[in-house]
Amino acid sequence: MNFPTVTRQRREGRPSLVATEVANKIIEALRKGSYIRPAGEAAGVSHEALRNWILKGEADATAGVDSEYAQFRDRLTRESGRIGKGQVETREEPSPRVGRG
């Protein structure tokens, strides 16, 4: 008995946001004075995702891997001299203290 062979076409995944115009939008927003969180959100990227991109880029760069994440992180690093280091800080902002009484 012969069964027909089913060939599945390989679907292309969603293109990485780091390698697209999103990275350019983030850099441009930083150049215009935005901070990292609102720059990412304006480009449609959550702060958590953006932070993960930067951390992955640091890990890849340390390992000698030339990934799109490492390239994005390098762009942020190069631009940080022009835009102010605090704007590209990846640490969480402290929560405001609520006083009692």
Molecular structure report:
The chain has a domain at 21-80. It is built from four helices and no strands. The chain has helices spanning 21-31, 36-42, 47-63, 68-83. The radius of gyration is 19 Å and the shape is globular.
Task: Kindly list the characteristics that best describe this protein.
globular; mainly alpha; 101 residues; 50% helix
Largest sheet: none
* Class based on secondary structure composition and strand pairing: mainly alpha
Instruction: Write the element-wise H/E pattern from the N-terminal end onward.
Output: HHHH
Mean pLDDT reading: 75
Work out the strand percent.
under 5%
Question: What Rg is obtained from the alpha carbons, in whole angstroms?
Answer: 19 Å
Unreliable segments of 5+ consecutive residues: 90-101
Percent helix among the residues? 40-55%
Measured distance between first and last alpha carbons: 83 Å
Choose one word for the global shape. Answer: globular
Give the SSE layout.
Blueprint: H1 21-31, H2 36-42, H3 47-63, H4 68-83
Helix pairs in contact: 1-2, 1-4, 3-4
What is the structure about, briefly put?
The protein is an all-alpha fold. It has helices at 21-31, 36-42, 47-63, 68-83.
